[in-house]
């Protein structure tokens, strides 16, 4: 199930500390960080490198996640939607507080992800798998 969501790549981390503690299997490189688009939010643009067969478990974000696959393949799942096969050129947008997960394929993947999230909140919060 492919994070975005990289998605989704920062489970349990505060947005201010997104690059400090990447979970095993992920490497995040912040390419841009700005305040806004409104007070109390910030926008981060992040390159996410995902190791082969890595699973980003179910989680949510305190804002919108928009991603684009640069390299690799995987499976991306969003609550109440069908599993999507992703590959280079695939893009997605995950609304705030929407559970999703990513299973990377057998090769490394590279994602470009934009997070527009509330400042000071964890960038991602683990949640139980939907039933």
From TrEMBL:
Q: Which domain of life is it from?
A: Bacteria
| SUPFAM superfamilies, sorted | RmlC-like cupins
Q: Tell me which residues make up the Cupin type-2 domain.
A: 47-113
Read off the PANTHER family from this record.
CUPIN DOMAIN PROTEIN (AFU_ORTHOLOGUE AFUA_3G13620) (PTHR38599:SF1)
Could you tell me what this protein is called? Cupin
Classification lineage: Bacteria, Pseudomonadati, Pseudomonadota, Alphaproteobacteria, Hyphomicrobiales
């Amino acid at each position: 199930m492919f994070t975005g969501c990289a998605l989704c790549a920062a489970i349990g981390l505060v947005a201010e500390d997104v690059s400090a503690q990447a979970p095993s299997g992920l490497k995040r490189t912040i390419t841009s960080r700005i305040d806004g688009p409104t007070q109390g939010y910030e926008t981060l643009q992040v390159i996410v490198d995902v190791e082969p067969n890595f699973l980003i478990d179910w989680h949510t974000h305190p804002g919108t996640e928009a991603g684009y696959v640069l390299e690799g393949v995987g499976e991306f799942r969003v609550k109440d939607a069908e599993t999507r096969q992703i590959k280079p050129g695939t893009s997605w947008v995950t609304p705030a507080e929407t559970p999703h997960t990513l299973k990377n394929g057998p090769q490394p993947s590279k994602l470009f992800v934009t997070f527009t999230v509330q400042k000071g909140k964890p960038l991602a919060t683990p949640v139980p798998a939907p039933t």
